[in-house]
């Protein structure tokens, strides 16, 4: 093993590793929020079992989960009419599990707010994990699915289908996944030049994103006004008027993808090692990376299919999670929780901010995410990991 | 070519001859593109009839179509194509960055937001009115993108420029969408304009945009030499007696006006400003006094041809020129990025 950490170039990056994965004490002493310089996990983590007990990560996950629950309760209470938390919970219990008495809030809470909130939670979690996987492989926080064209590909295909008369919500998600995968494959193929360089990958992704966005706009002008209005809202990522019809299929899709995510949680660790070490350990790096990226793209496209491209969640959530846990690699569970929290909070605000008009949730996430992207560019954190290879 | 192999560049006479030859070719191409744009459409009109309609008037259907529909569209295409191509050339010169383009850097989106705000809040519905908003938006966006990209280590590398462009783009798109969602009436007026198209623009626009086009062109031509010096590096440019700051400011102002007027007239047309300067440099060399006029000739050719192809691709409906230029532009960007020198 070399004396310098391959990712940060700082000397002694691997020093001070505690056996069996309890790198906690060292972790605290390091600078906050930096891209590397910590060594939370080493090879021995792999022997420690699937769930590494990194105390800080566990605490962060717990905190995020509590915050998400709190926001969810608020989400159910707040709206056109305010419903007391206790009544909201009663309504949920009654409508979902038939417990207790029917309440006058059943319709508002059980039929309008709960499904929409559930969808938001799942979409956020899916984007969070997708972003974490792609950022891990690219070793670059900027390579998120909505910047490299995945979301735009999913949008283009979906809006195209909508304008040509496909209105079945059963079909749209599949088209969306196909579009996202196709876009990612295109970017991958065109960025491949005897290897994959992160900067080239990102630049070509941005180019494709622009072109795909203009194709989406083309479809918008084709359809009649109502379809355009609908598609326009969808395109920005909106949970408005959505319910179990979208949340159900997304839930099943996520369930199907769950084993993949569990695999990814372990495989991710080997990828975050430097290439030589991983290869020496017998890891088939190329395949693992391809698998992780594919999973990320599928997750992002699936979420896009259900709610439209909710911009920047995939960029933000993993970064927030990583900064909170202060681990060298991006924690999947915390990313998922952070994503869910972001989307539900943003949708809550989107509903209330300009009431009675509802903004698409994607407007709010972009309004928060874009400045964060700028901050990433301005701070050295955004550049420290530039040189890495993508996929 | 009879280039002198001992010297690093071809003899001057040969270079001038070559440049003049290419200029003539570009002028011919421009005339052809103009003729195509006037003659081709859902109804084909013979070139002789087109000329007849332009020169002698006449009241036939064909003459009517040419004069009332296709002529304004073509003239606007000529002006906007030239404006965006020159804007792209200047941006690439100022940033010394081969992938600079008003669309990618978010400057067009800035102009768009200006227009949206003008339509939705200021109650401005004429181009003469909202062109100022477009300028303001384009100016703010270009300053922001450049400031973000050039701060920190390494200066404004292609990746940082493209990413800060993407960030500003996303932010501005969310503003646009927020406005359009809350003001549904503006959407219908806006959605056709937003995509970048030459269709359905009336003659008045021509009268309104030419003064701005002229001012922008004068500004960028004025700093052509300064851009040449800048290409050698900031220190060399200073050594050559150029006031680098003035060159940058004037060039940025010119590019902003050209982008703003182009976007206000035809919506954001992506990639014209990216591809054309490279073609121009490939055929006349790096001298901005040649590249700028050449770009002004090739830009309209690209835009008009994109527009014509869009008209005949899926009759009877049209593919807007903005989509066509994007589709033509992407292979260009891919080629540029794949060249080793770019991916810094």
UniProtKB/TrEMBL annotation, chain A:
The chain crosses the membrane at residues 57-76, 117-135, 147-166, 172-192, 201-220, 247-265, 330-349, 361-378. SUPFAM superfamilies: ABC transporter involved in vitamin B12 uptake, BtuC. InterPro entries: ABC_BtuC-like (IPR037294), ABC_transptr_permease_BtuC (IPR000522). It comes from the Bacteria. Its main location: membrane. It is a multi-pass membrane protein. Pfam families: FecCD. It is found in: Cell membrane. Keywords: Cell membrane, Membrane, Transmembrane, Transmembrane helix, Transport. Belongs to the binding-protein-dependent transport system permease family. FecCD subfamily. PANTHER family: FERRIC ENTEROBACTIN TRANSPORT SYSTEM PERMEASE PROTEIN, FERRIC ENTEROBACTIN TRANSPORT SYSTEM PERMEASE PROTEIN FEPG. This is Iron chelate uptake ABC transporter family permease subunit.
From TrEMBL, chain B:
It is found in: Cell membrane. Pfam families: FecCD. Keywords: Cell membrane, Membrane, Transmembrane, Transmembrane helix, Transport. It is a multi-pass membrane protein. The chain crosses the membrane at residues 20-40, 74-91, 103-124, 130-149, 161-185, 205-227, 239-258, 291-313, 319-337. CDD domains: TM_ABC_iron-siderophores_like. The keyword Nuclease does not apply. Signal peptide: none annotated. Belongs to the binding-protein-dependent transport system permease family. FecCD subfamily. This is Iron chelate uptake ABC transporter family permease subunit. It comes from Streptomyces yatensis.
């Amino acid at each position: 093993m070399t004396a310098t950490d391959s990712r940060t170039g700082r000397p002694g990056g691997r020093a001070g590793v505690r056996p069996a994965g309890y790198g906690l004490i060292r972790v605290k002493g390091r600078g906050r929020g930096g891209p590397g310089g910590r060594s939370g996990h080493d090879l021995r983590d792999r022997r420690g079992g699937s769930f590494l007990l990194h105390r800080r990560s566990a605490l962060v996950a717990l905190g995020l989960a509590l915050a998400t629950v709190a926001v969810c309760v608020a989400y159910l209470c707040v709206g056109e009419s305010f419903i007391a938390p206790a009544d909201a919970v009663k309504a949920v219990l009654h409508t979902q599990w038939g417990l207790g008495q029917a309440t006058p809030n059943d319709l508002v809470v059980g039929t309008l707010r709960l499904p929409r909130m559930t969808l938001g939670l799942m979409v956020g979690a899916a984007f969070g994990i997708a972003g974490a996987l792609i950022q891990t492989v690219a070793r670059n926080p900027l390579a998120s699915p909505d910047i490299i064209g995945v979301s735009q590909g999913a949008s283009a295909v979906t809006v195209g289908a909508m304008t040509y008369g496909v209105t079945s919500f059963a079909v749209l998600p599949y088209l969306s996944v196909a579009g996202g995968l196709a876009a990612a494959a295109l970017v991958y193929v065109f960025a491949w030049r005897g290897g994959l360089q992160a900067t080239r990958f990102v630049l070509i992704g941005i180019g494709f994103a622009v072109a795909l966005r203009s194709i989406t706009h083309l479809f918008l002008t084709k359809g009649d006004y109502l379809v355009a209005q609908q598609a326009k809202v969808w395109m920005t990522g909106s949970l408005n008027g959505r319910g179990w019809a979208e949340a159900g299929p997304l839930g099943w899709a996520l369930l199907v993808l769950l084993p993949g995510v569990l695999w990814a949680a372990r495989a991710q660790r080997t990828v975050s090692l430097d290439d030589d070490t991983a290869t020496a350990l017998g890891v088939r790096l190329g395949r693992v990376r391809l698998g992780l990226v594919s999973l990320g793209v599928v997750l992002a496209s699936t979420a896009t299919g259900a709610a439209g491209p909710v911009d920047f969640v995939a960029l933000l959530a993993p970064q927030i999670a990583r900064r909170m846990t202060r681990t060298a690699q991006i924690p999947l569970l915390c990313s998922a929780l952070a994503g869910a929290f972001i989307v539900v909070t943003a949708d809550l605000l989107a509903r209330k901010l300009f009431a009675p008009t509802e903004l698409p949730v994607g407007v709010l996430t972009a309004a928060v995410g874009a400045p964060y992207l700028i901050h990433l560019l301005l701070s050295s954190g955004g550049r420290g990991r530039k040189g890495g290879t993508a996929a | 070519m009879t280039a002198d192999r001992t010297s690093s560049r071809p003899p001057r006479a040969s270079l001038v001859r070559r440049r003049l030859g290419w200029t003539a070719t570009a002028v011919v191409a421009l005339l052809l593109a103009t003729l195509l744009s006037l003659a081709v459409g859902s109804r084909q009109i013979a070139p002789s009839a087109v000329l007849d309609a332009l020169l002698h008037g006449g009241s036939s259907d064909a003459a009517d179509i040419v004069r009332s529909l296709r002529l304004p569209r073509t003239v606007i295409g000529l002006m906007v194509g030239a404006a965006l191509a020159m804007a792209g050339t200047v941006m690439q010169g100022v940033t010394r960055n081969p992938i600079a383009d008003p669309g990618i850097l978010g400057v067009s989106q800035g102009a768009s937001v200006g227009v949206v705000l003008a339509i939705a809040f200021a109650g401005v519905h004429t181009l003469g009115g909202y062109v100022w908003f477009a300028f303001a938006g384009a100016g703010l966006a270009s300053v922001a993108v450049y400031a973000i990209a050039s701060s920190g280590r390494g200066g404004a590398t292609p990746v940082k420029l493209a990413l800060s462009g993407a960030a500003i783009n996303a932010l501005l798109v969310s503003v646009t969408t927020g406005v359009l969602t809350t003001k549904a009436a503006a959407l219908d007026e806006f959605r056709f304009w937003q995509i970048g198209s030459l269709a359905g623009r009336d003659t008045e626009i021509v009268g309104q945009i030419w003064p701005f086009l002229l001012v922008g062109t004068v500004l960028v031509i004025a700093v052509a030499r300064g851009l040449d010096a800048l290409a050698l590096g900031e220190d060399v440019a200073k050594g050559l007696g150029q006031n680098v700051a003035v060159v940058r400011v004037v060039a940025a102002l010119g590019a902003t006006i050209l982008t703003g007027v182009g976007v206000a007239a035809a919506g954001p047309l992506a990639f014209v400003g990216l591809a054309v300067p490279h073609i121009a440099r490939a055929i006349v060399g790096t001298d901005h006094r040649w590249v700028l006029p050449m770009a002004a000739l090739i830009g309209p050719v690209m835009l008009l041809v994109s527009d014509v192809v869009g008209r005949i691709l899926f009759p009877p409906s049209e593919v807007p020129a903005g989509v066509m230029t994007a589709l033509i532009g992407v292979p260009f960007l891919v080629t540029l990025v794949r060249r080793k020198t770019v991916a810094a």
